[in-house]
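Render Sulfatase N-terminal domain-containing protein in 3D.
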Amino acid sequence: YMGTYPGGAMAPARLRLWFLGAFWVWLGSLMGAGLAEGAQRPVGEGLNVLFVVADDLRPALGSYGDPLVRSPNIDQLASRSVVFQNAFAQQAVCAPSRVSFLTGRRPDSTRLYDFNSYWRSHAGNYTTLPQYFKENGYITLSVGKVFHPGVSSNHSDDYPYSWSLPAFHPSSEKYENAKVDGGALVVDNQ
């Protein structure tokens, strides 16, 4: 369902696409003031770029009108961003959706519809967004799940094409049953 929740909050698919759309508009503005084609940016010069991917983030945020949720950092980002009200996911599963927004190509171009194949080997060696930055002098790093891990990213999260170093996947098991008090993690030092 692509409608809204009570309080004006957007459906989850729309929220994910809002973040994606805001990022692409912001990135386009950076590239418009970028380098000439083929030029290399000297390391240490230019703008820093932070690309955040969040799985299953629903629209329970202050910026979408939720009266109970306090999300000041995301709300501040939203207040300075373009909000897309009518955008759609490319595929209902993670791997093709991620490859789609990282390459700017639809799943019918990448021929990735599930998790069981590596798109570069059977559809073409398309340039990804982090690969573009890497080829233009940026150091690109992946922390967590950017590409879907496994076959669909060649068991390497698309390293070395997209990333300067192999992707880092921190363990979340340490915090699986962690106690939280008032939004803060309770640390047991025993």
